[in-house]
Protein: BLUF domain-containing protein
Amino acid sequence: MSDNLQQIVYISSAEHPFTDEEFAEMLAVIRENNEKLGVTGMLLYKDGDFIQVIEGKEDILAPLFKKICSDYRHYSIVEMMRKDIVERQFKKWSMGFHHINNDDPRLEGFNAFFDDDADHEVDPGDALNLLLVFRE
Structure:
């Protein structure tokens, strides 16, 4: 069993617009599973798009991310970043969550993540920075 910590950041699109009830049910299961697995992270949702970071031991994250990629609730999954880490950046969260509104001032400079412009290149470092903005 590997003790190497890893962090994976990905973006995806929701299969349908999620209700608050659906989020509550989904997050309860995710948080319970993540606590058992020793996984931490943050999930952001805005207008049908997700950005998520997960952190944990490499041998736990690899199969977990494969499972996430096969989840029917989202599609167009793009792994933005996978890197070894020394320390968790989301250690207080089994899975933090924010449903972002259009007028949230923390989005300033990050709106490109939620644009439908297919030609726009999204920087992996900026994806992590956006998640960090919502960490606190």
